[in-house]
Amino acid sequence: MVSSTSSTPPRLASPAPPSLETLVSHLVASKRSLSSVEQVWRGHEIIETTRFHLETSVTTTARSSFLRSGIAAQLHTLKHVHRHSKLVEVEGAQEYGEVMRTLDEADQRLKDTMDGLRSTVVEIRLRPGSDKPKSLMDFVDEGSVDKVLTNIRESANAAQFAYQELLEANRNLSDDIRQIEEILRSSKVQPSEPPTPQAHEQPSDEAMPVSPIPDILQDMEGRSRDMAENLESLVRHFDLCLMAIKQTEGGGDAALQLAAGLPDGARLEEDVANAPEPIGDQERREMLEVLATDADQVEEVVMEIRDHINAMEAQLAAVTAYVAQLDHEYAKVTAAFRLLEKVGSELHAFVAQGQLFVTRWDEEKAKINERMDELSSLEEFYVGYLGAYDNLLVEIGRRQFMEQQMEKVVQESMRKLDTLYEEDSARRESFRHDYGDFLPMDIWPGLTDTPLQFETRPVDGVERVPDISKSVIQRAIRRVQGSRRQSMT
Question: Tens of pLDDT along 382-404?
Fold first, then answer.
């Protein structure tokens, strides 16, 4: 809007001057436009509110950043402690698994050996007078095996319990660290593009994002200046309308009446409020031309002010939302810090839990190894017992053979004795036939005796070797030979 009475180039023909009614309508429209002063005042309020938000946002951001840096340092320590404890957990699980595998192998070997003893039925001929078959396992006490296995299970359960406690402690610490990191991630402020005429670059430092408020405030101040200038032009236009009416015949009273009740902040110039000084025709024509031109722009200026205040209201809403996000971030970071304090208070117990597991595992592992030695001794005894039974069958076979050899010798001796006996009997009978009649009977009482006789029989009280079948003895021999070959490899 021009709103000026400066001289303009002369024209060839001047239009008819506007009527008083036209001037009054311009004045009414101009007076109505002065209500924009409320929007100008609202603009000042918005700027003050934004400045306050800027101050509080700086403080809140600084606090959040300080807490974040402290939490990050403590998280680094927590992760280091967790990694160390996790390493203890992994190594403990590996050692426990190896010990359990070794134990399972030894237990399986013992079970196989015991199954061999159970499946080996003692030959019934070795136990005369017993008609109930028994296995080799019936002659040993299984209670010693059960006792060793029970002790091993108790130690293994104690170690497993300690491991589960460590596992749960590691899981809880991992969950706490993950929860703290999730809180920090979810609380990170990611402001949307603020409604300003200039685009803002995204901050390169994720830990300390650049606030959009300073740029918004700068834009608001520029809009506020534009609104003030526009309001000032509207006031000048209103002044010009009053002056034009006062310079028109019959318009003085109307001007004073219409000038009353202006909005607060819209003040008239002193020379316009008082009685005007007369002006020349040329100056009046120029004034009316400027007035007519400005009157066409009043609504446009009012709309411009309205657009500015609408934009500032939207900017204030964006600033308020951004500050709310900062407050939310600070609350979240504070919650993460509180959780970190809780975890820190439990850290000593967590470290002690890892040390307790190592100590308890070493103790139980020593007990398990000791019991495994006992288990190995039992296995060695049972293997020897099973092998000894096979060797017993082999020994019985050997003794059977020797008895047979003895019987052959006895039979051969008896056959030779019988032959000698018959020969001697025949020779004695021939002697009696030749000389018996000539010799008196009392010259040698043994003249008519029969030859000396012998008999061979087992010694009383010595039992014969049990009659075990050759197939049983042969199988025992093969098992013994197989065991010897296996022990040599």
Answer: 999 999 999 999 999 999 999 99
